[in-house]
Amino acid sequence: ELVDLCVEHCSSYSTNADTINRLNGKRVVITAGPTREAIDPVRYLSNESSGKMGYALAAAAAICGAEVTLISGPTQLTPPQNVSRINVISATDMHEAAMAYAEKADIFIGAAAVADFRPEHVASTKLKKKIGEEAMVIKLIKNPDIIANVAALTPKPFTVGFAAETNNVDQYARDKLTRKHLDMIIANDVSRSEIGFNSEHNEVTVFSEYDEIHFPHQSKDRLAKALIQTIANAFQSAMDR
Amino acid sequence: ELVDLCVEHCSSYSTNADTINRLNGKRVVITAGPTREAIDPVRYLSNESSGKMGYALAAAAAICGAEVTLISGPTQLTPPQNVSRINVISATDMHEAAMAYAEKADIFIGAAAVADFRPEHVASTKLKKKIGEEAMVIKLIKNPDIIANVAALTPKPFTVGFAAETNNVDQYARDKLTRKHLDMIIANDVSRSEIGFNSEHNEVTVFSEYDEIHFPHQSKDRLAKALIQTIANAFQSAMDR
Fold first, then answer.
1. What is the DSSP letter of B186?
2. How far apart are CA B59 and CA B224, in angstroms?
3. Which of A66, A99, B54, B69 could form a disulfide with A61, with the two C-beta atoms 3.0–4.6 Å apart?
4. How confident is the model at residue B17 (pLDDT cuts 50, 70, 90)?
């Protein structure tokens, strides 16, 4: 029954029909959504990620029989069927969960929009503006680089990153692929409002060492299935080498 | 029919049964939810407000026949029936909408958790962390003080503020009431996780020049009805003076 479902879901994208064989029983870890970096008990830094792309990838991988762990920042989304969800808030929490699960993963997909920086100090009580105070400075320090740390594991899972950029998208994506030793990177232009963070649709280009595949504008659900197919193929090729 | 609904909803809290007469046809403007202050096209500063308290107040005022305008920051909530909702993102946008509607309002309730500060510069493209960069600084400047500016209007609406604090709650609330020339302030302790921003419940103390009323732990819907009753009474007293 599961096989039928997957064949049905995957067949329209498949050049070969055995994505399910490649993913069935494989451990897939996916991060999704934004992270929130606390400034004080009520204020935080965050970003526009809705989590939709990561959740759609988790659903698509689970349909193909993978054991999916979804490590999710704060979102309003319902976890997909047959997916185990771990809820986190900050990049530090997400890093800890990601490293714990990545060690045993076959495939790791970093779809979360992880904050690069967090406030150096978190105030334990709400910061008060002082009378006459017209400006304020927040000092930020670097967060752990989750995807780079996953890709540095030995043995490492097949590691797929995302590059959500507003400019020079292809260049940043290629650079990130090489510098962080990723197996694959999925790049999209979040400056375009019809696709990206708050949209139901997306349009991406997938870069790997060997090729570059463009996926035109389509629903995130449909795109997720096509991407899982592409990832499964590349994962199998990497195993075969 | 409307009268019956209100009497039914308000009767359990009423010392007198004419809240509806006090609010029927009155223009009530309510702000709700967080604001988001952009750092670049994908990153922002925000806070934990869910908007539930402001939306519940809007619903309660509309049931009593008021013409309610709800100026809302980004939330996942559905606008209550018979409420006109204006969606905004930043404190600057909320300030502009609030001032435009407050001029014609009888009652203004500032339930939004407005960011006190915003980044001085908003980058037009996604900020990139540089290789080796371990720290970063965000310079913030003060946002307009919406509730103080509303209370400074001539003539001014009956102006109700909120004080969401984590410590010295009563002291900060009383100070804010006086300093910003508010008619009333509703104070709650958001350090307690069982009430406040992300809860369905709340417990507040209402301060005015003349009195101090404590509302014990209860659902935000029930509390909103009691608060609208209290606001309507105080509004009427102010009109009668």
1. E
2. 8
3. A66
4. low
Contacts of B164 (CB under 8 A, 6+ apart): A42, A126, B49, B113, B187, B188, B190, B196, B197
pLDDT of residue A15: 37
- Report which DSSP code applies to A144: P
Give the chain B residue whose CA is nearest to the CA of A74: B48
For chain A, give the number of residues. 241
pLDDT digits 0-9 by tens, B63-101: 999 999 999 999 999 999 999 999 999 999 999 999 999
Q: Which of B42, B49, B115 sits opposite A48 (nearest CB)?
A: B42
- Residue A141 bridge partners (DSSP): A118, B135
Alpha helices in chain B (DSSP H): 2-11, 19-23, 52-63, 91-102, 146-151, 169-179, 220-240
How far does B183 lie from chain A, in Å, by closest CA?
21
Residue positions of B annotated with a catalytic role: 47
Over residues B94-133, the pLDDT tens digits come to 999 999 999 999 999 999 999 999 999 999 888 877 767 7
Residue B157 has pLDDT above 50, yes or no: yes
Q: What is the ipTM of this complex?
A: 0.83
Pick from B41, B49, B113: which is nearest to A191 by CB? B41
For residue A7, the tally of other CB atoms under 10 A from its CB is 15
The CA-based dihedral angle spanning residues B179, B185, B191, B193, taken in that order and rounded to the nearest 10 degrees = -160
Nearest to B36 by CA among B47, B20, B25: B47
- Does the distance separating the beta carbons of A167 and B125 come in below 8 Å? yes
At the second CATH level, the architecture of A2-10+20-228 is: 3-Layer(aba) Sandwich (3.40)
Domain B2-240 in CATH 3.10.560.10? The answer is no
Query: Rounded to whole angstroms, how far apart are CA atoms A46 and B46?
Result: 7
Residues of chain A with pLDDT under 70: 1-17, 131
Of the partner residues B42, B116, B136, the one whose CB lies closest to the CB of residue A129: B116
| Beta pairing, strands A27-32 & A107-110 | parallel
> Dihedral (C-alpha) A113, A119, A121, A125: value to the nearest 10 degrees?
-80
- A&B contacts, CB < 8 Å: 109
